[in-house]
Amino acid sequence: MDTRWFEDVLVLLEEGNLTRAAERRAVTQPAFSRRIRAFEDWLGQDIIDRETNKVTIRDSVVSREADIRAFLSRLNDLHQSIRDSAGMPQRVTFATQHALTFSALPDLIGSVEAAGYPLNYRLRTANRGDCISMCIRGDADTLMCYETPEEKPLPFDASFRRHEWGNDRLVPVVGGGLRYGLTPDGGLPQGSPVILYPESSFFWSALRQHCPDWFSIQSVMRPLCESAFTAGIREMVLHGLGMAWIPMSMVWQDIESGRLVDLTRSLGFCPLTICLYSREKHYFTTNVISRMTQERRFV
Question: Are residue 253 and residue 125 in the same domain, yes or no?
């Protein structure tokens, strides 16, 4: 038995729709349907009436929603109590966007250590969509990610608590020989090489929404490379291979030293908020974040 099947059933009860439930669980609808089938195989009976044109959940499950919630709550409490009594440093598994692993995450861990909370960390880095899926599946306890202004809420329920760690911004930068070929207004000449994010990436969507000139810039520049790996993009920009938008937290020291030139004045920037989503009943939330919030370390 996979206890996550019970979480799937609860989401299905809340949504009453396989497609919406699959979206909340960050899987495809066919994959979610297979998980419900697996639960039914374990249970020994169907929980969905598939003879109708719409999803109808049988009363035998609907009437026991409170019992399912109580079972999962008790299971989580037992899991946490065993971990608490082991006498070992508490472990927290982070799912973190690539860029934040190089900037905000070390800052966060340093602040937690300085505040006197000995923890053991497990880090999993990926693009934002995959990080969200890790948390929803239960493969991570805490998500560290970027959000943009006016963005729709992430697909978490009340079992996760949201905190703001700080602010950042995507800024256009150039390095190498490109620093010396800027136009009088501080921009890049037409035909200059530019490094782009894939259309499926979070940064591509953020730039599209919050940098009106971004598409027009692409039309007059020469696409050199496409990548979602910001650390690699930074290295290419430092070598003068092209211009790119990179989080300020990753390049501020390069800008201060003169290795990179910030083109914000001519090309604009994209505002970002660094957010944490942590499981409500996890030690990291109930002990570390709650107390650090009281000390005004968190928003």
Answer: yes
Condensed to tens digits (0 to 9), the pLDDT of residues 257-294 reads 999 999 998 888 999 999 999 888 777 777 787 777 65
Judge whether 71 and 219 are in contact, CB under 8 Å.
no
Which pLDDT score is estimated for 157?
A: 79
* 102, 27: one domain: no
Q: Which domain holds residue 25?
A: 4-72
- Give yes or no: residues 122 and 265 share one domain: yes
For 179-222, the DSSP string reads: GGG--TTS-PPTT-EEEE--TTSHHHHHHHHH-TTHHHHHHHSE
Query: What is the pLDDT confidence band of residue 200, given thresholds at 50, 70 and 90?
Result: confident
Instruction: State the pTM of this model.
Output: 0.70
**243 vs 173, 176, 219, 236, 279, CA distance in Å?**
6, 10, 14, 9, 38
Query: For 44, left (φ over 0), alpha (ψ -120 to 50), or beta?
Result: left
The strand pair at 260-262 and 160-175 is best described as antiparallel
Task: Report the 10 Å Cβ neighbour count for 127.
Answer: 17
Contact 220, 226 (CB under 8 A): no
Q: How far apart are CA 163 and CA 278, in angstroms?
A: 8
170 and 223 assigned to the same domain: yes
pLDDT digits (tens, 9 = 90+) for 84-95: 665 555 778 899
